[in-house]
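Suppose you are handed only these lines of text.
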Amino acid sequence: MKNLLQLLILVILTSCSISIYADNMSDKELIKGRKAMFKQNYSYAKKMSSEITKGNNQSVSDLALKMSRNYKSLISYFPDNTKTGYDTGALPSVWKEKELFNELMNKASNDASDFAKIAMNLMGDELKEYQKKMIWSQCKTCHDKFRMPH
Ligand code: HEC
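From them, the structure of the protein bound to heme C can be written out as follows.
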């Protein structure tokens, strides 16, 4: 009973601190922040490709973990007050189909962290194939539905 109460208090405190954090960021900071994170993930993905070619597997793995963490944070960068403005390239579908959007973001994050493990055990062309499937394919799948054509 005491444990249950502690758990309940922990859950309440955690959810309060998350919402305070999101409330503190302005729509401008959120939109600019998420654009910067997507750009960063793009540069991580490109760097990953060149590190695979060079055989720097530890670095490939580190980049994949950073990418995974960015995707996880990105989920909280799309509250209702950030649908328009500041040159956002996000489509209204992000908010109409929030569940699917978050699912794809979580999948992208989980696949990147799985890829980080695979990168420690495979090399060269074989690793490139996995990178295509687990890293690069996520971009188009999500953009087709949720990002404006550019
Ligand atoms: C789950 C969805 C999702 C995934 C996965 C995803 N993106 Fe995006 N991406 C978006 C959305 C939505 C935007 C528009 C954000 C905005 O402008 O507010 C975006 C924007 C971008 C931008 C433009 C940033 C800017 O400065 O305007 C780049 C570059 C980008 N993504 C690259 C990538 C790459 C590369 C990958 C894969 C490695 C990827 N994205 C994976 C949804 C996704």
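What can we learn from it? Residues 31, 34-35, 38-39, 41-42, 45, 88-90, 94, 104-105, 108, 135, 138-139, 142-143, 146-147 surround heme C (CB under 6 Å). Residues 27-54 form the longest helix (28 residues).
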